[in-house]
Write a structure and sequence with these properties.
This protein is α/β, with parallel strands linked by helices and 215 residues long. The protein contains eleven helices and eight strands. α1 links the parallel β1 and β2. The structure holds erythose-4-phosphate (E4P). It holds the Pfam family TAL_FSA. It catalyses: D-sedoheptulose 7-phosphate + D-glyceraldehyde 3-phosphate = D-erythrose 4-phosphate + beta-D-fructose 6-phosphate.
């Protein structure tokens, strides 16, 4: 399973990118709004060093508007993936983007049937939202497993991005459940890095080394 970072913050993306763990970036209107910057400028900045998929979401609710917006986003860099909401209008836009050779990420997926429809419309990626399902008392991980099974059984090549990841266990479970990618906030990457025994081990090695130098 690949790791994408779910942020529009360049320092966070750079920090994770420098560790060699990032295969792509996802953004959404809420994440971009937090940055208080011009959206297209920020995408130019991100795509200047991220070579994998960078998802940029459209705001229009009608297919024509989504296609217009998406074409401009895709012009920014060849690795822009246009993020489209899981609606009938969104699927019409996905179909057009497919014909235009523009990659798409269908977002706000909350059921296996939505994922199947998005895949059949030609989506490159589908994004089931784990955390938001957990928030309403439904099992987001079951959804990942269902989608992975359906896509596997029917030879569907659309990739599954486990989204709305809230903590490291979501990442492990998404990987075991068959997600191709997990997109996560930088905070979760930092949590994944840490283990108390690693810290204690480093401390011990350094102390032993120092003591040996004293003779
Ligand atoms: C995915 O692409 C979304 O940007 C994201 O994962 C949403 O997560 P949230 O539910 O924590 O806002």
């Amino acid at each position: 399973m690949k790791i994408f970072i779910d942020t529009a913050n360049v320092s966070e993306i750079k920090e994770a990118y420098d560790m060699g763990i990032v295969s792509g970036v996802t953004t959404n209107p809420s994440l971009v709004a937090k940055e208080n910057v011009d959206f297209h400028d920020r995408l130019r900045e991100i795509t200047s060093f991220v070579k994998g998929s960078v998802s940029a979401e459209v705001i229009s609710t009608e297919a024509d508007g989504m296609v217009e917006e998406g074409k401009k986003l895709a012009d920014i860099a060849p690795n822009i993936t246009v993020k489209v909401p899981m609606t009938g209008e969104g699927l019409k836009a996905v179909k057009e983007f497919k014909e235009l050779g523009i990659k798409t990420n269908v977002t706000l997926v909350f059921s296996a049937n939505q994922a199947l429809l998005a895949a059949r419309a030609g989506a490159s990626y589908v994004s089931p939202f784990l955390g938001r399902l957990d928030d309403i008392g439904q099992n987001g991980l079951d959804l990942i497993a269902q989608i992975a099974e359906i896509f596997g059984l029917h030879g569907i090549e659309t990739e599954i991005i486990a989204a709305s990841i809230r903590h490291p266990m979501h990442v492990t479970d998404a990987a075991l459940g068959g997600a191709h990618i997990a997109t996560m906030p930088f905070k979760v990457v930092q949590q994944m890095l840490k283990h108390p025994l690693t810290d204690a081990g480093i401390e011990r090695f350094l102390a032993d080394w120092e003591n040996a130098q004293k003779g």
